[in-house]
Design goal:
Layout: H1 9-15, E1 21-26, H2 32-40, E2 46-49, H3 61-72, H4 77-84, H5 100-114, E3 118-122, H6 130-142, E4 149-154, H7 157-162, E5 166-171, E6 174-177, E7 194-198, E8 201-205, E9 212-216, E10 219-224, E11 227-231, H8 235-242, E12 247-251, E13 254-257, E14 261-268, E15 271-276, E16 284-286, H9 291-298
Parallel strand pairs: 1-4, 1-5, 2-3, 3-4
Antiparallel strand pairs: 5-6, 7-8, 9-10, 9-13, 10-11, 12-13, 14-15, 15-16
Helix pairs in contact: 3-4, 3-5, 4-5
Length: 300
């Protein structure tokens, strides 16, 4: 059995929460095994969706789900799971021909069919396009209302802020809650060049080159045309220097170039994102508490 020795007591308590709940961990992949082990010994029925899933590749999508429907004795759940994950058009597709994104949604659909007390999902948005993200986030948002728990683990800071529910950073030093409250951007003097590093090479970016900046685990990264570059400045310092160039503090951990924003996406009633020209399909998180400030500032 996988070990849970690496988990702090506070994390174990979160895994044992009863009733309808949604808990999300930002953590390194090696901490997923202890999370799974703790849930496995909890005494509750748990549906596991791992980052490394195996399939019966000769079966088609519908037959695969109906196999688990028969095993679980949950009549009528296969069709509902297909619809929830947007897989109706792939119901007769052999599993070996599904895309990685479809396989991820199929894994979730399999656990929907089994109807466990707790859903545990690793990297829920991995490889998803906008429609896939919407399907998964809407389903996750609705899980607590059924009296079940949804627990997710991801190595992506961006992803954890899009997921509905409580958010925590988990590492070898313990557990830290990620607050949703926003820090106000300070006023200051802007500059024309922003320093960043690619390996040992120092780069100087024009503000217009930067799509967004994010802060995770005490480190700041700039996203430029889909590539990430380490930046020694804090997000607060960047906010001060970039505000006059049209950057907006959309989230505690994100600063976005509003010139690059194409769409405001509402994934669920409490999960919003800004979709950028060169940004990730899931978008950059937009805190609910920052929406009114953005409307006032940009007059829409």
């Amino acid at each position: 059995m996988e070990s849970s020795a690496a988990l702090p007591h506070a994390a174990r308590e979160l895994l044992l929460k009863g009733g309808g709940c949604a808990v999300n961990f930002e953590c390194a992949p090696e901490l997923c095994a202890p999370l799974r082990a703790e849930l496995a010994r909890s005494g509750r029925s748990v549906g596991f969706v791992r980052a490394d899933e195996g399939f019966y590749d000769r079966m088609d999508t519908a037959a695969y789900l109906r196999l688990f429907e028969r095993m679980a004795g949950t009549r009528g759940m296969a069709d509902a799971a297909l619809a929830a994950m947007g897989l109706e058009d792939a119901r007769r597709t052999p599993l070996r021909r599904l895309t990685p994104a479809q396989r991820r949604r199929l894994s979730i659909a399999r656990e929907i069919v089994r109807a466990p007390e707790v859903f545990y999902i690793e990297e829920p948005l991995a490889g998803q396009d906008a429609e896939g993200c919407r399907r998964i986030l809407e389903w996750m948002d609705g899980v607590p209302s059924t009296g079940r728990c949804c627990i997710a683990a991801t190595a992506s800071t961006r992803t954890v802020y899009l997921l509905p529910g409580e958010r925590y950073h988990l590492d070898g030093n313990g557990l830290e809650r990620l607050e949703a409250a926003e820090e106000s951007a300070a006023q200051g003097t802007a500059v024309e060049k922003i320093p960043a590093k690619a390996g040992e090479t120092l780069l100087l970016f024009n503000p217009s080159d930067i799509d967004f900046a994010e802060s995770a685990s005490g480190r700041t990264a700039l996203s430029v045309r889909g590539e990430e570059y380490a930046c020694a400045l804090t997000l607060e310092e960047l906010s001060v220097r970039l505000e006059r160039y049209g950057f907006f503090r959309c989230h505690r951990s994100y600063l976005v170039n509003m010139q690059k924003v194409q769409e405001v996406v509402r994934w669920t009633r409490n999960s919003y994102a800004l979709r950028l020209e060169n940004g990730p399909e899931s978008g950059v998180p937009l805190s609910k508490g920052r929406i009114d400030a953005m409307r006032r500032q940009y007059r829409f």
